[in-house]
Every structure is written in structure tokens, then in C-alpha cells.
Amino acid sequence: MANILPPFTRATAYQKLKAAQNLWNTRTPHLVANAYTPDSIWRNRTSFLQGTPAITDFLTKKWEREQNYRLRKELFAFENGVYGEEADSRDGGGGRQGEWGRIAVQFWYEYRDKGDGLKWKRCYGLEDWTYDAKDGGKMRKRMMSANDIVLGRDGDGIAVPEEGIEGRWFVDGVDVDDEIVTKQITERHY
User: Fold this and answer.
1) Which of 91, 71, 92 lies closest to 81 in space, CA to CA?
2) pTM, full prediction
3) What distance in Å separates the CA atoms of residue 182 and residue 174, rounded to the nearest whole number?
4) What is the pLDDT of residues 77-113, one digit of tens each?
5) Which residues pair with 72 in a beta bridge?
6) Model confidence band, residue 2 (pLDDT cutoffs 50, 70, 90)
7) 107 bridge partner residues
């Protein structure tokens, strides 16, 4: 993932997000944290953090609570720019020089909530990622916003379509990028 640097094309932005998806699906906090700069800035729902130790700690606690975690990411948008004399205020350059890139991602993940009786839930969200080519392809800023729904009756994960109750997409043995899943993700899910 680190070898994909800004400026991004649609193809490289997609490669970057699928590499991130695969890395997050390992649920290995120190590996995931190493995909970010040592001083990376995060907002994850209501948590604001910065730096590798804080990210590692956050992810460790996250995956202790979110059991059976399975994630899918899709490209929402991307843009590129150059830091410099007329730096765009959106890039957050802080006096940097060089190229930057941003990728916006929509995602869905399912998990069993250890803090809520192991109910199956699905999280829907958006992320805004910022990269600087000088950072070796590591993400320097990640902003995430998301909401959760309970899956199935009382969190059992089983769909009841006639009642409008959502069930699990990422059932055991199904790849998160499988066409079976893709067909279930409709406009009402984003």
C-alpha cells in the first residue's frame, strides 16, 4: 500500500482503498497503524487521536469489542493538489512543499458487539484520507463518520425481508468483494 503515492488516478485510488480494506480485515492493530504516518491525525466518530501509539491502542480496543469484524470499502471520490505559495486551504499543508492527494471512501462493516450481548451490527460510514507524497505513501490524516444498525431480529443477523429487517451480508465463507454482496448494496445503503 505504501508504494502507491499521490497524485492518484482512479485506478491507483481504488488500489489504495482495497489494500487498506485488506489490511483492516487482518484486525492486527500494529500492522494497520503502520500504514499511517507516525504523527497521523484521526477522527473516528467521537474519538480524536494522533500518532502510532494512540492509533494502535484505539484499534486494539475497537477489535476487542467488535468481534467477527468484516469490512468493505468503495471509492467515493479523489483529488490531487500541490502544496506551495498558493496552497489550497483544504490540503492542510502547514508550510509543506510537494504533491498531496485525498481519497474519500464509503464503507460498510459487520461485527458482533461484545458490549451489547454479541448482537450483529452493520456500520455505514464515510472516510476522508489525506496523503503527502513525501510521507512514503502513508496516510497522514483520517477523518471518519459512521452510524450502526442492528442486523436481524434482536441482533441475530438473519434478514426478515417481509418486515424490512436487514440481515448479514458478509456471512461466513463469502468474500466481502463477492458479487453476491455487491448486489445487496443498493442506493438505500449509501
Assistant:
1) 91
2) 0.89
3) 11
4) 999 988 764 545 554 555 566 789 999 999 999 999 9
5) 108
6) low
7) 73, 125
Cα 131 from Cα 1, distance rounded (Å): 12
Pull the grid cell for residue 126.
464515510
> Where is 7: in which H helix or E strand?
none
In the sheet that 119-132 helps form, which strands lie side by side, from edge to edge?
47-50, 36-44, 139-150, 119-132, 98-113, 66-83
Q: Which residues contact 55 (CB under 8 A, 6 or more apart)?
A: 29, 32, 33, 36, 40, 42, 49
CA dihedral defined by 40, 111, 77, 36, rounded to 10 degrees? Answer: 20
Dist CA 7 CA 95 (whole Å): 19
pLDDT tens by residue, 109-163 = 999 999 999 999 999 999 999 998 888 899 999 999 999 999 999 999 999 999 9
